[in-house]
Amino acid sequence: MSATDVAGPPEVGVDTSVAPSTRRRVVAASFIGNFVEWFDYAAYGYLAATISTVFFPDTDRTTALLATFVVFAVSFFVRPIGGFVWGHIGDKVGRRNALSLSIVIMSVATFCIALLPTYRAVGLLAPLLLLLVRIVQGFSASGEYAGASAFLVEYAPPGRRGLYASVVPASTASGLLLGSLLAALLSGILSDGQMHSWGWRLPFLLAAPMGLIGRYIRLRLEDTPAFRALEDQEVAPTPAKQMLRANRRPLVLAMGATVLNAVAFYMLLSYMPTYLSEELHFGATESFLTTTVSLAAYIACIFFTGLASDRFGRKKMLITASVLFTVGTVPAFMLLDGAGLLTVIVIQVLLGGMLSLNDGTLPSFLAEQFPTRVRYSGFAISFNMANALFGGTAAFVATLLISWTGSSLSPAWYLAVAALVSLWAVLSSKETSREPLRES
């Protein structure tokens, strides 16, 4: 079966004669830009334990961690607003312009974290400034994942939208991987005093040069063929309003399908080092090492998942992921308790592989739910609403549930419930992998 057979007829408004070299530049630009954005955004999560002592008053460990994760979660609440703003820019002015601007905002905000004063220096002003910068980061991140996914899907050749869109979660995880490696390196070579004094600032200082590189690459690209094909048509004054009026059902189902990604991504790939060190009493370096290996496995599986979603369909891949998380999460967390380092690594690799089944498919699935004229808005609003409610709060909810119940299995039950929500949404959706992208 050829790629054309899988995809169906050529897509309306899409230039199928785009040069392979152009597509390679699009993939490289999307990967690098998204990598920079999410390295910047994830550095906070990996340094949460250190940040909790730098920016908050000396209280018990759990309270300081909860305060740190509250700041992490609050930055997500601005993301639905950012979804409307970036969706408006992306659908009205262009995907490239939105992505080029978002990377600058993210890089400047992240660099500012490295310059913030500590609680000992300025008191309560320190966490307030941290919160302000995190809100700016959340606003920027709200346009990145959706925009990069729409960009790649609209540039992809017929029958390869899943594979092309899988570049987005792969680059996101690569940014996390670099953050995890840096955190592990710093924890291994610096003393606790050095980490709390200045070591935690180093990852944030990398934001400025990396952001400039990402913006330069993105500005050298043209906008997508699908978007350019609609340039002569009248654009609604507010694309998001048009999307909400005509695409309410796809929006709700897209939000539901994203719940598993929102909870599992941040719980397994961002919160897990804190869980291992604070709840299971692993060393900081060991905790970062296990997550680093899990991230590497996740990245390796992502592209195969994207390719498989083109071959077998989006729904089959997403349903498989939801079922595996529903039945497998609690047993996996039970095995983590009391396990040795090697066993923990194996379990995290398996969980990362399960997550890749969802995340490698989700970008193309979400992009295909909405027509080209409002695709950026539909993707950004649904994805960011789910992440604001369930992703940004995952670490906080996990820590709070453990504190309330006294059980280290509480996060696993929460993740299993999230998988059930996504299973319902995907079962209620229609298969889109073999249909052409809609114009309107």
From TrEMBL:
Question: What are the record keywords, sorted?
Answer: Cell membrane, Membrane, Symport, Transmembrane, Transmembrane helix, Transport
Show the stretches that span the lipid bilayer. 64-86, 98-116, 162-186, 198-217, 251-268, 288-308, 317-335, 341-358, 379-405, 411-428
Subcellular location(s) of the protein: Cell membrane
Domain of life per record: Bacteria
Q: Spell out the PROSITE patterns in the cross-references.
A: MFS, SUGAR_TRANSPORT_1
Keyword Transport present in the record's keywords: the answer is yes
Give residue ranges for domain Major facilitator superfamily (MFS) profile: 26-434
Q: Which Pfam families match?
A: MFS_1
Q: How does it sit in the membrane?
A: Multi-pass membrane protein
InterPro entries xref list: H+-coupled_symporters, MFS, MFS_dom, MFS_trans_sf, Sugar_transporter_CS
The text of the family note is:
Belongs to the major facilitator superfamily. Metabolite:H+ Symporter (MHS) family (TC 2.A.1.6) family.
Q: Which PANTHER family match?
A: ALPHA-KETOGLUTARATE PERMEASE
Task: Identify this protein by name.
Answer: MFS transporter
According to the entry, what is the taxonomic lineage of the organism? Bacteria, Bacillati, Actinomycetota, Actinomycetes, Kitasatosporales
